[in-house]
Amino acid sequence: MHKFIIGITGTLGAGKGTVVEYLVREKGFCHFSVRDFLREELENREMPVNRDTLTAIANTLRVKHGASYIIEQLFIKARECKSHSVIESIRTPGEIESLRKNDQFFLLAVDADPRVRYQRIRKRNSETDQISFRVFLENEEREMHSTNPFHQNLSACIRQADFVIMNNGSILQLNEQTETFLTKIGFQSQ
User: pTM score, two decimals?
Assistant: First the structure.
């Protein structure tokens, strides 16, 4: 069986997690999450889990082990999975460069209007989402552009995607766009 490994990148609150849920539920994908990997790392170090500590630990691990370290750890797990896999959430060009060495890898970006995304994160209500719109925009700006290869650069990641979904509509529309992406890369359900 040719196994697909799909990486997900995109902006905060754009719908990356909803795409992942669809791939897991409807297509049987295994799911590997950078956020879960980092949360576990923070918990092992008995540090609080918030957007700043998640970003800081990610940057620390990248500096110590290499720009693509986190994604490489998740890719190893994805290769071991007996099914297709999705890796959420790719945030640096170095991670993409590492993953592109594998012919079964494809990158999907998800984006949406900032106000739409802010409303979504407020409804999601996770530990990192209790922020004002101003802080939301500041966080995003910090994560969008960086010349440091160990720091997040979402705009560069989105530009490198094989397919970009603009998710300003309903979940049904998002699922339809996900199906369009799967068709484009040659994925067929078993």
Answer: 0.88
45 occurs within a structural domain: yes
Would residue 186 count as lying in a domain?
no
- Exposed / middle / buried, residue 72 (Cβ in 10 Å: 0-12, 13-18, 19+): middle
DSSP per residue over 8-21, as a string? EEE-TTSSHHHHHH
Place of tokens 């697909």: 4
| Half-sphere exposure in the Cβ direction for 150 (13 Å, CA) | 11
The pLDDT value given to residue 148: 80
* Of 6, 174, 1, residue with least CA distance to 100: 6
Please give the order of strands across the beta sheet that includes 105-111.
30-33, 85-88, 5-10, 105-111, 163-166
Q: Are 139 and 131 in contact (CB under 8 A)?
A: yes
Overall number of domains in the chain: 1
Give residue 109's pLDDT. Answer: 98
Identity (one letter) of the amino acid at 47? Answer: M
Let me know the angle formed at the C-alpha of 108 by 80 and 105, rounded to the nearest 5 degrees: 35
Is there a domain that residue 185 lies in? no
CATH code at 52? 3.40.50.300
